[in-house]
């Protein structure tokens, strides 16, 4: 675990933006667990922040507890997928039900929900789970790439060729997501694995950033302030606000400063336990 | 509700409310918008609403369909686009544009869930756009808090600094003395990595200097700047990593 603390540098910032009175985004991260969570809540009055708050709190507690008893890199017997998949699916399912039930039982929370992007870093890779239009980007060798594909009406239109990227920028449908946590009793999060390289910079963000700031400008900031994460986070939020700041904006930056291969041998696992 | 205004030679003929999923345009009588003119094909074009967007599609018409003078096959309509079919013009007025004048209402930015099975015609309603396309399994959520006190913001320009005058810095001392650097990017970093680094950011109101790295912060006119970004004035002298440079508007 301490290995991850030295390997990952993480900085997060969230801001209500220039227009909204309150912040419905929520972020949480823990370098020791290799965990990042970002949620963008929705729903009337302050129900949006209730939903994103429940999501980050429950996921943070649940995932960390699961990591205590289950090394995330070990393959599952049935699926041969790393245990991280099961941990993320299970905890997202729990959070989904908790939000759904709260929304059902509390009239002021009816219809609330939240987007989610969360990742576990382990064994020189990461597993990212996402729901809705909050994103994960990766800057590698100067190039910015989106690792998540939005669950949104606009992305579906783009995929099916109904709309050009140019038209998408003008669309009025930017705010319509096709999946969200807490809306239905069942939820299918999307999970993907990526290998991690030394020097990679990961950006988790809510749509308040990528709706306001072009990818080119995001890339320029990350490239220039690659080794200065607090300044980079500040600058990204500043740019979103300078361009109108019409939504809450949140960013979490993760830089890979060292490799973090899992300890595999029985001996090293035992030693690792004794050392804790 | 979005609408089309049909005109010929500058004379308004009809106003068509776009209250259904698709509106067919053509010469034959079954079209929702019938234009009885020989230059118009029987089934000429189709306008479809998807969420808050309208798409116009030419149906392989003989004489074609144009938007703002450009022939199109299929294109998303923008507020105040002019559709040309033969000698007829159709002006498209979007719901967002009609609701508050040109800037969009704030509510359009609120993230909402749309379910795959709810992509059906918008029910005719005078409610604001987001409410009509939204479908939630539980009760309808309480109306979003009205941002009455907040003026509708202008659409993001994505070039917030467009109005700012161009500026540059000129190196006054050291090996690069005399050289100048135009501040064309939103963010320019200065200094030596590992020694002292600062950035100049271009913002809508001014250029700002921010300390990034190094044991001491840079000086403006001999005074050390704070932790926060500081605005630069014309002919300020910046001192960074032992080098003096002048900031000026061009």
UniProtKB/TrEMBL annotation, chain A:
Pfam families: PP2C_2. GO terms for molecular function: protein serine/threonine phosphatase activity. Residues 10-256 form the PPM-type phosphatase domain. It comes from the Bacteria. InterPro entries: PP2C, PPM-type-like_dom_sf, PPM-type_phosphatase-like_dom. NCBIfam families: Stp1_PP2C_phos (NF033484). This is Protein phosphatase. It comes from Chitinimonas taiwanensis DSM 18899. The lineage of its organism: Bacteria, Pseudomonadati, Pseudomonadota, Betaproteobacteria, Neisseriales.
From TrEMBL, chain B:
CDD domains: FHA. Residues 23-72 form the FHA domain. Pfam families: FHA. InterPro entries: FHA_dom, SMAD_FHA_dom_sf. It comes from the Bacteria. Residues 139-161 are annotated as: Disordered. SUPFAM superfamilies: SMAD/FHA domain. SMART domains: FHA. This is FHA domain-containing protein.
